[in-house]
Amino acid sequence: MQSKAQTSNLPFTVAALYRFARLPQYQELQQPLFDLCTSNGIKGTLLLAAEGINGTVAGSAQAIAELVRYIESIPELADPELKYSYASAMPFHRMKVRLKREIVTMGVEDVDPLKTVGTYLSPTEWNDLISDEETIVIDTRNDYEVAIGTFQRAENPNTKTFREFPKWVEENREKLEGKKIAMFCTGGIRCEKATAYVKGLGLDDVFHLKGGILKYLEEMPREKSLWEGECFVFDERVAVGHGLTESDVELCRACRRPIHAEDKLHQYYEEGVSCAACYDERTPEDRARYRERQKQVKLAAKKGVSHIGS
Asked: Where does the record place the Rhodanese domain (predicted)?
């Protein structure tokens, strides 16, 4: 496993960023951002909405620095929340700049992190809070993310998408009343909306981990860490560990859920076609298509070229 110093020498810099802002001109930024990224070899996804920007991109250190300078030059987007990590291979296939209704989709009207959010905590302050057994610790991520790593004592809402989170809060509101509530997510953005939503319900003693799990794993020494497992990331690295080192977790190419070595022993696992989690979600026709795609991936690999489905 690489050390933090070693990972910073890897050829690709990965930048996860977001900024909630009043951004009425967001549509006008789509083409300039796309052109800047593609001309500099940057790949990944950026989301633009009237409420701000969100995304993860990768490229050379110089290219990422140029992109960040451009984003920070836009007055509304100055001082974005930024987290850097590193990759041994380009973790994205293409560059996308998308226009959205929300930069993180919760589906609840009038949830505005610019008006109210939970109290931000540093990694050290976070350790102190979640060590208190009276604190309710909530993982706001989806079930497949939680499955490969989470904080000690964390509640798992078992959501498939972030849209399901408000329903879980409503159903569990009674046990949240009068408690300290500590929320966390991958990079911090989901918690901006999650804490704003919970505070809007009248639950005021709400905290969240500034910079999310990624900042925690970057800064917190392993021997003091309360994190167990690895952190799922939405790119070809699949997951990262302490020091933001790359994981050996892989993806099921049918459903893009994480899979470990033991998952490959299951009767429903077939490389590029299915895993135990998604076998019943797909039809035989689906799996036939995936087998053909996997065949093309292997043929491309033999020729020494990349296939988009790999």
From this structure: 131-225
Q: Which residues are marked as active site?
A: 185
Residues 6+ apart with CB under 8 A from 39: none
Please name which of 159, 175, 45 lies closest in space to residue 106, comparing C-alpha atoms. Answer: 159
Q: Which one, of 216, 177, 208, lies nearest residue 192 by Cα?
A: 208
pLDDT in tens, 7-33: 567 899 999 999 999 999 999 999 999
Q: What is the pTM of this model?
A: 0.84
Q: Provide the token pair at 235.
A: 């790119």
